[in-house]
């Protein structure tokens, strides 16, 4: 398992205390970080544009996360319904709980 770098930032940006931040950072530290290349950003823009053309609003960060999962043939673990809508417009495979 890997974690996209942008997910590390998103998760750590959502905590309220320094203690929570440190605990979450420690829990995530064993997972390798997957960084996006220029090509990933370009493909994410394509996915976002495709969604928008179909009337589906998608954030640029979500499009990048989806792109990284698709490009690495990975399943995306999510509880976010936005990814279900996004998956209809690309080859994104989801794992939900």
Reconstruct the topology from this structure.
Elements: E1 3-4, H1 5-13, H2 18-28, E2 33-34, H3 38-53, H4 60-71, E3 75-78, H5 81-87, E4 93-96
Parallel strand pairs: 1-2, 3-4
Helix pairs in contact: 1-2, 3-4
Describe this structure in words.
57% of the residues lie in helices and 12% in strands. It has 97 residues and is α/β, with parallel strands linked by helices. The strands form two sheets. A two-stranded parallel ribbon has the order 1-2. The protein starts with a strand and ends with a strand. The chain is globular and about 45 Å long. The chain has two domains: 1-34, no CATH class; 36-97, 3-Layer(aba) Sandwich (Rossmann fold).
Number of domains: 2
Uncertain runs are none
Supply the CATH class of the largest domain. Answer: Alpha Beta
Q: Please, what is the average pLDDT?
A: 94
**Helix-strand sequence:** EHHEHHEHE
Q: What is the total tally of β strands?
A: 4
Q: Give the name of the CATH architecture of the largest domain.
A: 3-Layer(aba) Sandwich
Widest beta sheet: strand line-up: 1-2
Report the CATH topology name of the largest domain: Rossmann fold
Helical amount = 55-70%
Q: What is the molecular shape?
A: globular
Helix/strand/pairing category: alpha/beta
Largest beta-sheet characterization: 2 strands, parallel
CATH H-level homologous superfamily name of the largest domain: 5'-nuclease
């Amino acid at each position: 398992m890997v974690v996209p770098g942008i997910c590390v930032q998103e998760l750590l940006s959502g905590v309220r205390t320094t203690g929570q931040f440190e605990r979450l950072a420690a829990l995530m530290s064993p997972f390798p970080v997957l960084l996006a290349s220029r090509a990933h950003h370009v493909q994410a823009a394509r996915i976002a544009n495709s969604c928008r053309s179909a009337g589906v609003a998608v954030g640029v960060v979500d499009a990048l996360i989806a792109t990284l999962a698709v490009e690495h043939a990975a399943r995306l673990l999510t509880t976010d319904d936005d990814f279900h809508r996004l998956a209809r417009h690309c080859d994104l495979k989801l794992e939900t709980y």
